[in-house]
Amino acid sequence: MQKIESITAMREAALALRAAGRKIAFIPTSGALHAGHASLIRLARAEGAAVVVSTFVNPLQFGPSEDYQKYPRTPAADGMLAEKEGVEILFTPTAEEMFPKGFSTSVQEEAVSKPLCGVTRAALFRGTLTCWLKFLNIIQPDLLVLGEKDVQQLAVVKKAAADLLLPLAIMTGPLVRDADGLAVSARNNYLTPTQREEALAVVRALRKAKEMVDSGVKISDRLVAEATHIIGQKRRLRVIYISVVDPRTMEPVREIVTGQCLMAVSYWVDEVRLTDNMPL
């Protein structure tokens, strides 16, 4: 496995892969690699592609009061996981390499990014799109591989890729959960055992919503009310939003059509912000 820090070296390595007739799959991450990322690497390798993974905590996607400075950074463990899973290139640029002094361009999607996380995290999707588009220009992959855990991010990227006619395919991998049911996330590292136990109420709420749909409930307000009730019983949890949405547009859905909507949740566990979702 190659570890590359500079944009010039990354471009050269990608050119060499293409010259050798290889298909390139790219998985952008913020590092702190976990089982969810490993599942995406396996998905990409199953396509016969040379897998490039970035581990970059992107400063553009964090607001001024968010956790950029303390976000988990585990470069040694990232390298071990990437090598074990068969990654060919681990791209680890610095913020200065990606966004040198004078960098002043941004990319904004104006519809799918607006509800849900877009209401309270104005920088998130603009920063993500700006960074990832630069990555795509550097690497020029054939395949972009993304997880379904960050469901709004996925929808925003798909919309931008379609609008801008990006010359790549997008493949998605399912959300991965730990044995206790909590959605795998780097920010889970912040949780104490007590906080983690309380966060499991969100998993129970999502599963209850799915059970209600399976039993015939079709009105989204009933699902949201039940999920809110379950989560509200835990004193450390504060709901930011619970919404039943179309996964392509993130627009709210009033009546459930099985297989065409999901419940999205964002919540605080004390000072830790997490998200989760469940297809309905």
Automatic annotation (TrEMBL):
The active site is at residue 37. GO terms for molecular function: ATP binding; pantoate-beta-alanine ligase activity. It is found in: Cytoplasm. One of its GO terms (cellular component) is cytosol. It comes from the Bacteria. Its EC number is 6.3.2.1. Keywords: ATP-binding, Cytoplasm, Ligase, Nucleotide-binding, Pantothenate biosynthesis. InterPro entries: Pantoate_ligase (IPR003721), Pantoate_ligase_C (IPR042176), Rossmann-like_a/b/a_fold (IPR014729). Its main location: cytoplasm. It catalyses: (R)-pantoate + beta-alanine + ATP = (R)-pantothenate + AMP + diphosphate + H(+). Beta-alanine binds at residue 61. ATP binds at residues 147-150, 176, 184-187. Pathway: Cofactor biosynthesis; (R)-pantothenate biosynthesis; (R)-pantothenate from (R)-pantoate and beta-alanine: step 1/1. (R)-pantoate binds at residues 61, 153. One of its GO terms (biological process) is pantothenate biosynthetic process. Pfam families: Pantoate_ligase. Belongs to the pantothenate synthetase family. Homodimer. Catalyzes the condensation of pantoate with beta-alanine in an ATP-dependent reaction via a pantoyl-adenylate intermediate. The reaction proceeds by a bi uni uni bi ping pong mechanism. This is Pantothenate synthetase. It comes from Lacunisphaera limnophila.
